Amino acid sequence: MKTTRVTTTDKPADSVETDLLVYLATQINNKAPQCDKAVMAQVKKAFELGDFKGKEGEQLFYYPAVTGGEKQPAAKRILVLGLGKIETTSKAEPKTKNDEATVCDTLREAGGHIAKACEKIKARKIIICLPPRGTLAPEKTAECITEGVLLGDYRFAKYKQVTRKKTDYTGITAVKFASNTAVKSVRKGVAQGRISALAACAARDMAHEPGNGWTSAEFAAFAKALAKTHGLTYRCIEKKEMEKLGMGGILAVNQGSAIPPRMVILEYQPEKKTETLLLVGKGVTFDSGGISLKPGAGMEEMKYDMCGGAAVLAAMQAVGEEKPKIGVVTIIPATDNMPGGTAVRPGDIIHHYNKVTAEIVNTDAEGRMILADALAYGIKTYTPDGVVDVATLTGAVIIGLGHHFSGLISNNDSLARSLEAAGKLSGEPLWRLPLNKHYKKQIESKVADIKNIGGKAGGTITAAAYLSNFVGKIPWAHLDIAGTAWDFTKKSYIPKGPSGIGVRTFLTLIRNWETGKLK
Ligand code: BES
Ligand code: MN
Ligand code: ZN
Asked: Can you tell me which atom of ligand 1 is nearest the CA of 463?
């Protein structure tokens, strides 16, 4: 992955030589937009001509004059980007109420617009002048813009080798933030935004890899490398050990495959031990459906069925860099789901790690089978204070929520609320669905403890009902990202393919974790 340098300066923005100098302007009713005084004259003129109001995403491009008595900016080009009516500081303007999450996302979108503008003019080095002080602290402002720029600048061209030209634009190489006040806070915000955005980009990279490019072995190798770089504890449970431990779920799903399964584990503990959060992510590197084979059309998208695993692993990259106050353990049950001659059959009965037996009615409901073993094992081994699993688990969640919310199901209101808040602040909203005994009844089996499908009705919830058999009483939440892991809400900083969803939500959850809350 390319690394973009992100720095901060307190020098005047227009004294720095750069491909593009960016200013941000907020819209004000019937008045010239509010912006830095360095560009006020141009913005006023454009406003009077009716060319620029400062609306969200609106752009005013110009070039410093070549001659002229006055000192000209050192930048090659100047862009004034509209933010819309987000931060009104003028007294004449009635305060438009925007919550923190909305302002954050507007700033991320602005970052995305900047990245898109850079691509158009092939700008590699840019400097961004922070907007005039508004409703958000400079730290958060810098964090969100950084995120937006880096997420919006993302591209995956690894396999475009023959058609790639030397002159092709490969993205921004250096971003500088100019601020003459609160430089220390700005620097901190930039660092946080950079860590979370690059982690989300790492998750997108993993997701982009096809089924033959990202197998359980690649999950293990990435985790091992992270452990080495950041001093985390790495462990990988291989097939033989799974057999010994009785992990019948992941073994059954892997039965028809030529590639061995792996349960990949990373652990981070702070120096002073506090609470531990367990994150479990579905790592199905390709889901053919198995013997209950999926239809051919669109099956190639099932290479994305490992996005939950990618999210928790990428979150661990950020954890490794940031070293938070709480402990974090991530587990990725990783395998593909293939219909080979030795594959698990509909009707087969399996024994999970915690001895619960399950009748496999449909081999395409494989995510819950591998998560079950990972949850039971993780809870028993690491005794965490809370558990969150994340998975592209059901097509049903797309029917229910479309591509704009991930599904959330939890046995703990406090954990659910923290996750909802973290998701909202990260621009990755969650919608909670219920779970009670009536849904659990749908997966009762005549021949085993449970069965792996619960009928057409409430498919997302019955999948969670299956998982609930493996978490006991511990605070637990399940995120279904089948609708949001790719084809997520179109935004300037969310590309068409994999979105990297979950990574920034987890990071926000960890950063804002309040010890003792789940007790
Ligand atoms: N990976 C799929 C879920 C999925 C579907 C994700 C579409 C993204 C887009 C999962 O393993 C699956 O096949 N689920 C089945 C469950 C059914 C057999 C109960 C589904 O949703 O159809
Ligand atoms: Mn499936
Ligand atoms: Zn699947």
From this structure: 19
